[in-house]
Amino acid sequence: MDNPYKPIPVVLLDSYFETNDRQLKSFKFKILDENIEKSFDYKPGQFAQLSVLGKGEAPFGIASSPTEGDELLFTINRI
To answer: Sign (positive/negative) of CA torsion 55, 75, 28, 37?
Structure first.
């Protein structure tokens, strides 16, 4: 990835609640550009700035393993 500040378009594959009280929700994303997807690398504990056009943005920790699969998982606790 040449520019870490350039947004990477993703598609939401799935979202689901992790707990019965609906406090934890997971979101599974896939990077749209295959070249970026192949070169995208992260370490455990890193975060990504997620944004939704017209809604805003916030930092979230990446919950998926960097060594398993092509999808990015974020699990968010409701505040």
So the answer is: positive
CA distance 7 to 50: 9
Q: Tell whether 2 is covered by a domain.
A: no
Mean pLDDT for the stretch of residues 23-43: 94
CA distance 38 to 25: 27
Largest interatomic CA distance in the chain: 41
Identify whether 5 is part of a domain: no
pTM of the model: 0.88
**Can you give the CATH number for the domain in which 29 is found?**
2.40.30.10
